[in-house]
Every structure is written in structure tokens, then in C-alpha cells.
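Example record

The entry below shows one chain as it appears in the dataset: sequence first, then C-alpha cells.
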Amino acid sequence: MALYESGEMYLETIYILSQQSSAVRSIDVGDYMGYSKPSVSRAVGLLRKADLIRMDDSGYIHLTKAGEEKAKQIYERHRVLTEMFMNLGVDEQTASEDACRIEHYISEKTFDAIKAHMEKYLV
């Protein structure tokens, strides 16, 4: 099953929230993203069907191994792109917003080149 931008955004959000708390609920995801309960419920259902998340008996969301790997990849792209834009003089909020748009579409090859450049010249 292909994971589109919105699914990636949900995975990234679940990952971020799981780093802040061991208990992530659908309501937390909706609050963080500013989305309605029905939207979150639909997305959670699709992510479960794709075996990227699981829900425990208490209704808490957990990333599967595959879900965590994908979420970490998306989050890394976000962090690296945000840092790159900030190093170019873009303010943090704009840099983060632009990174969020680009992280879903940039090729692996281009991202790897950016990451290597950042590590070589800016670290």
C-alpha cells in the first residue's frame, strides 16, 4: 500500500508524540495536527491496515517496526531540510513549514546529497 503525504504526516506526528509520551491516543494526534476526530479515525484505520501502527486494548497507538522506520525517515528529512533552510537565513517557522512540504516529495538521491553536504560543511 502506497503511503501518501497525509499518511506520512500522521506517522511523523505519532512518532513525535511517542517521543514525548509513551501513551499516544487518537485525540492527541488530532490536537497536535488540528484535525477532526473523523479525519484522524480514518487515517488511523488506514495506517493500521497498512501495518504501520497498532492499537492496544486501551486505545493507545503504537508504531510497528515498519511504521517506526518510515516515521524516523520522514522526521529526519524534516529536521535536515529545516536546518538547511535556516542555515540559508530562513526563519525557523518558515524553514519548518517549507521542509514539511518538501520532505514528502524529495527523492532519496537528492535528500542523501543534501544530508552529505550538510554533514561535510555544516557539522
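Notes for this example: The mean pLDDT is 94. Residues 11 and 71 are 5 Å apart (CA to CA).
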